[in-house]
């Protein structure tokens, strides 16, 4: 077996003998415990901008095989980190889809994310003396992430990837990985994603960004990390949360349940209020439970995320287009994908619709479309872990027989 731990130690500590965590300026957004960091000395973005001493945070499970070809690359969503166990734990471990007895599982954090890879909250060119990137962080794309992450796989000695799996933004990454070629990536799983970011999703992203722009503490992105524009980030997260769930799921969970009725039991969820609601303000108690839910989730989000990072990642989503520079049409670009591809869609998903998944399956020559049955909307790709786990295992049995 290849000793990746020894290689990781060399990668993480070779750059000027400087502690990698010193490259992150915010104490509240330091890399997650247990993850490793690789530093790419120089990296040229798709835009032509050259970055130096670029940290890439990642986590691994399992052992790389002697042939260095038992690798599953898992790609995280917009607000996720490299810790697959945090957001897809039921899929990770012996006997599961990401079987750590059979596979070397790796998840690499994306550029722009606040979880350790180069982003607005890391030091410019890896040098704390230059300060943090902040608003000066360059625009990055899904393709930039894939090229940077492949550099890390090369450093780890990976010769071939058995499968790439991702949902939402991670599904965009999975599609881009397919263009690395069938001799490098054997099969692809794209979940609740799209071939290009459409106007509906771009519009929602712009709405969320404007919530941040109009926060009086934003200052064009040049704010203090000690006093960031959390109000705008909270509003952006609230808007995003509504796109992650379906209308029916929100109605069934909350109905018009009043905030003061939440202790009265399940029956209160279906009570129809006859009194007009009071005017709500940010400091007042909410009238309805759904308001309380959104406020709580949004505030919790600001404890682990950064506004400039949110802007960087939503712009990255908008850049996604598999046809850019490859083909005249989306269908022609998807037709270039040669690997066996599993497409998973959710009929209640209003963000990346089932029609988006049908387009992928129709245009990729060797694709199969399967439904994740759920009324929960887009977030079902995280919620319905049992369905996804079972479907992936069947896909491995069909296309990775030599490893299962």
TrEMBL record:
The segment annotated Disordered runs over: 261-282
Stretches assigned to the AB hydrolase-1 domain: 70-383
Gene3D superfamilies associated with the record: alpha/beta hydrolase (3.40.50.1820)
| Keywords attached to this entry | Transferase
Q: Does the keyword Heme apply?
A: no
Query: What superkingdom heads the lineage?
Result: Eukaryota
Example of a GO MF term: homoserine O-acetyltransferase activity
State if Transferase is listed as a keyword: yes
Q: Which GO BP terms sit in this record?
A: homoserine metabolic process; methionine biosynthetic process
Give the annotated active site.
168 (nucleophile), 349, 378
Q: Which family does it belong to?
A: Belongs to the AB hydrolase superfamily. MetX family.
Q: What NCBIfam families does its record include?
A: homoserO_Ac_trn (TIGR01392), PRK00175.1 (NF001209)
Supply the name of the protein: AB hydrolase-1 domain-containing protein
Tell me the organism: Hypocrea atroviridis (strain ATCC 20476 / IMI 206040) (Trichoderma atroviride)
Taxon lineage: Eukaryota, Fungi, Dikarya, Ascomycota, Pezizomycotina
């Amino acid at each position: 077996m290849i000793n990746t731990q020894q290689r990781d130690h060399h990668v993480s500590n070779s750059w000027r003998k400087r502690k990698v965590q010193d490259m992150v300026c915010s104490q509240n957004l330091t890399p997650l415990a247990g993850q490793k960091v690789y530093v790419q000395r120089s990296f040229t973005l798709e835009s032509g901008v050259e970055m130096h001493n670029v940290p890439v945070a990642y986590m691994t499970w399992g052992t790389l095989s002697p042939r260095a070809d038992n690798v599953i690359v898992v790609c995280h969503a917009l607000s996720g980190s490299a810790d697959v166990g945090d957001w897809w734990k039921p899929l990770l471990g012996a006997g599961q889809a990401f079987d750590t007895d059979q596979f070397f599982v790796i998840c690499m954090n994306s550029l722009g994310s606040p979880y350790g890879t180069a982003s607005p909250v890391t030091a410019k060119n890896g040098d704390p003396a230059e300060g943090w990137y902040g608003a000066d962080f360059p625009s990055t794309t899904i393709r930039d992430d894939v090229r940077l992450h492949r550099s890390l796989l090369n450093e780890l000695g990976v010769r071939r990837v058995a499968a790439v799996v991702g949902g939402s933004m991670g599904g965009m990454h999975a599609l881009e990985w397919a263009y690395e070629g069938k001799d490098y990536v054997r099969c692809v799983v794209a979940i609740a994603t799209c071939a290009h970011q459409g106007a509906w999703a771009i519009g929602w992203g712009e709405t969320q960004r404007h919530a941040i722009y109009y926060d009086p503490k934003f200052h064009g992105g040049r704010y203090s990390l000690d006093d960031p524009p959390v109000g705008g980030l909270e509003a952006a997260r609230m808007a995003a949360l509504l796109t992650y769930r379906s209308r029916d799921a929100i109605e069934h969970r909350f109905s018009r349940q009043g905030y003061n009725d939440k202790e009265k039991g399940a029956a209160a969820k279906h009570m129809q209020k006859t009194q007009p609601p009071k005017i709500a303000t940010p400091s007042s108690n909410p009238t309805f439970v759904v308001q309380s839910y959104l406020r709580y989730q949004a505030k919790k989000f600001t404890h682990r995320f950064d506004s400039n990072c949110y802007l960087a990642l939503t712009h990255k989503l908008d850049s996604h287009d598999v046809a850019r520079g490859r083909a005249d049409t989306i269908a022609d670009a998807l037709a270039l994908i040669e690997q066996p591809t599993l497409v998973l869609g959710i009929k209640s998903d209003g963000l990346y619709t089932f029609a988006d998944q049908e387009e992928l399956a129709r245009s990729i020559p060797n694709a199969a479309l399967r439904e994740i049955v759920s009324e929960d909307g887009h977030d079902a790709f995280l919620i319905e872990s049992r369905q996804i786990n079972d479907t992936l295992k069947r896909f491995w049995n069909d296309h990775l027989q030599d490893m299962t």
